[in-house]
Amino acid sequence: MRRIGPAVFLALGLAFSPLTGDAQQAPGKAPLIGLLDFGAPDAARVNWWTAFRNALRELGYLEGQNVAFEARWAEGRVERLPALAAELVGRRVDILVTGGGETARVAKQATATIPIVMADGADRVRLGVVQSLGRPGGNVTGVTSISSELVAKRVELLREFRPKISRLAVLWDGTPNSRISLEALEDATRPQGITIRPFRINGPGEWDQAFSIIAKEGPLFVIASPALFIERKRIADLALKHRLLTVVGGREYAEAGGFFPYAVHYPDLFRRAASYVDKILKGAKPAELPIEQPVKYELVINLKTAKALGLTIPQSLLARADEIIQ
52 and 119 in contact (C-beta within 8 Å)? Predict the structure, then answer.
């Protein structure tokens, strides 16, 4: 069972406190913002949503006075998303803000009229969520994490440690969003003669056996997804147990003991999503708001994990790191 400490409960209270004050007594006076997250309310994801709420506060939106929030968490279970999205639509939220790979796609299936603002997510054009980044069309807009486009960069970083790599194990969750990243990985590795072998873990009892097999395949590439993000500590521990060089996404993997992630800075994406909410509440149409791409990326290196794996970090890589965890 995952344990959540007092600090996380405090953050949860700040990020997703119940509707209070004027917003509860007179719901028609304050816009109701629905928050739909594919992941679980752990400290990291709560921090992202807190960045979103803080940005809204800076724009003049105060909970209990002129805005209210209603949140739903899928706990990494994609099958829960349709019902959660339907609940928020049933609550007649004024705007739906989504976090996590599949949420925008499911939210769009739930409503064609309520504005949807994406706080992150990969290729929304290929998933059919929007028509284009410049002119989304329909009721969806926001920011994208372009996870699939970062795949080639992660492979490039991996080759600094394994220049002659010929095989690569891949951990993914089987969702349409992750499939796009998997296809991008195939495109990035095929010209280099690297054979990839995907692994999908369906239950808690499969982790140890899967990693025993993965360890024989060579380095591990973790496809970024909320479902696997929940398991980042387990992934880091098993990778260390099997002395497995692992490429991951997001600084939170390094903080959990993972080796070297290269990804966007997610709190920044969630802050930028707040500006879309502000524009829509002031009358802008989602169809006419271009989708923004990331402007801030991070390379985080966990030196303790590198030492445990017997790896020597090239000085060129250390010089490029945004943060080094000792």
Answer: yes
